[in-house]
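Re: weekly structure request thread

Next one in the queue (121 aa):
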Amino acid sequence: MPLSNLYTITTLDQAPGQITCTLHIDAGHPVFQGHFPGSPVLPGVVQLEMVKAVLSQALGKRFTLKEMSTCKFLEVLNPAETPALTIHIQYKGEEMLDVSASGKQGEKTYFKARGNFQSYI
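Done, posted below.
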């Protein structure tokens, strides 16, 4: 199932080595009919895809995840209850990025991850 229109980046702020953005998650997207009916959960792999999408939009390059050294999903993200997610990214490098990212809303942290993303054409 295509994940187009599952989320929209609504704000994007940058500083050297840092990106902060807010995303709106469409709780009515068809992916939630199967994951899970009546109790939607945003899959962890989609949360990591969001990090990659934010990097790509902010830095104007396409990236692929090369290595994940740490990844923790700390809370279940139900898009009906939490339609917005703030992602904070710290990174070093240019073509190969050492990335530390987290997804939060209010006081809740939904995920923390650290890994390397490689740019490609």
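Strands lie at 7-15, 18-25, 62-73, 84-92, 96-105, 108-120. The first strand starts at residue 7 and ends at 15.
Next request, please.
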